[in-house]
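Entry 14. Ran structure prediction on the chain below.
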Amino acid sequence: MGAVGLGVLLLALAIGVLPLSGPLKLGLLGALLLAVVLGLRRRPRLLVLLLLVLPLSCGRGVLGQPHQAPSDPVHRLAGSAREPVTLTAQLLEDPRPDPSGQRCRALAQLPGGRSELQFSPCPAVRMGWRLQLDGMLRKLPPAPHPLLSGSAERLQRREAWTALDVQQWQVLQRAPTPIADLRRQIGLALRQAGGERAGGVLSALVLGSAVSPLPQEVREAFRAAGLSHALAASGFHLSVLLGAVLVIARPLPAALRWALALGAMGIFLLLAGAQPSVVRAVLMGAVAFGLQECGRRSRPLSVLLLCLLVMLLLRPAWLLDVGFQLSAAATAGLILTARPLEQQLRGVAPAWAAAAMAVPVAASLWTIPLQLLHFGALPLYAVPANLLVGPLLTPLTLGAMAMAALALLCPPLMTALGWLLVPVAHVLVWLVRQLAALPLAQCQLGRLSPWLALASALGLLPWLVPQLRRWRLWAALLLGCVAAAQFHLLRADQLLLVEDGSRQWLLARHGGRAALISRRADGLSCSRGAQLAQGLGVQRFDWVLSLDALPPEPPACWAALTPTLLAGQNGSPPLARGQRLQSAGLAVEAVSDTSQALLLAAGRWRWGLLPDRQAWWSWREQPGLAVDGLWLGFRPRPAEQAALPALPPARLWWPPAGSASGWRQA
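Output, structure tokens:
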């Protein structure tokens, strides 16, 4: 079965995995079957085979999703959101600090299923240990808005539906974990040799950033510069390792070449862990090596599709993993686009420059739809960044792997090698931070809807695959429609309310500008506001108004998010009656001196904002305030509901009963 058959099977599997409604899945599968019948009517054997296999592939995608077992811990909470428990658990990973830095979390196997353990402070426990735990078991709330990351969605992909806030713990058994101990020993040795930044980067070049702890600022700098792939264990790292091994093994007998190559790939898989990008790289490397040793010419696209199909048949949920998607798209770009692009660039640049530019350009172009779908931003300097750091990455990766081996075999030699490599790692980190600090390093275009992302991918294909060039006119029209639709969404007037427990955010947009009103002023509120801004394509808010009665010291996050942050002091409202906070098309005005009642103007919209009952009482004392909508930060009583203005129900917002999170939009 060639690339076409493998691609069709992957599409059927994807239809089963994607979170679509049942009728839509059936409709898409029917359309795919019809396309197969029309396209392969002259190849009856392949047609019959695909007609038999495609429904099975789609069914595997549907049935292979993570699901709650009958004995899962979540069933203990059938009648409540949380419950005190005492139980035993085995750690499936080392505890690691969460993004807030205030606690540590680790996935664990409980009786009946998995759960995430959350510790404060971080304990001195390790992967594989069995613990006796006392704590509060709770359900994981969904993300309050699709643009905000949620623990429930993150852990469901790892087959966990609960979290356990650990109050007391006791070690029952310290099980041996030789592979995890090896990772810790290597990571610790490299960090001690180079420090948290440079040593952390060296460790990530060997183990991958998913396994090796790395300062958050360094992660963010690599992401903003378009270099996250350098720290994620993937095909690049395996190619460096395998290339070095094959150079050494070239004069050896075939049996030894096989042993060394497979051994190198096995060690890479064990150290980096069975992440989707690592598994893909190892499978492709093994198939390509086997074909080369057998003297057969490989077909890279068929090899890629076969590896992806095998992976998804084993773990269908990997399709929803962002790392898997980016790895597959970038690899497809290298196979289908890099060589033709290099030939075109040779007409305007030297051969070495054309070869150097073709790889990052091809990978970047193929991942554009996914980056806009998941992040809403593009790293503008990704190509020059890859050209600048490319000469450093290969020797650093190979050197870091040599340091890792010496850390186990001869630590004094590792220290000597570190004297050469650590300064180079510092230069790499410095370069990346400078690139990330450049203006517009992250171009905020807003997250595309799934359908717009699919349309943009289809519009890019004829420009990336030479064989499809005859469709370029229609592709250009499709890309123009996608750009027009996204531009309209970014410029439209919008009022978005997001509620997450005691934290609430009201985001107003007009003409491509935006402002934010936040109930809280703490760091978590700021980071959530930054996620909303990036997802909506907002570079910075014109102004931010905090309704926190006793705000903490403003975190540095707010300074990066807005030039103007206004908050109350010592319990007083942030604005006095008649005062306004405004920018072009956006304004908020206080209507009372004794409460936080506000009048918000966003383009053509005028909304009343009443965070509490005191604001509601003040509002009722102001006759003649005409508004298009009203937001109440509390649930009104029946008598209060009767006194509300005569507005459509869709423009009367207050917290729904029985729910602490959610969102509404006008």
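The first strand starts at residue 82 and ends at 91. Will compare against last week's run tomorrow.
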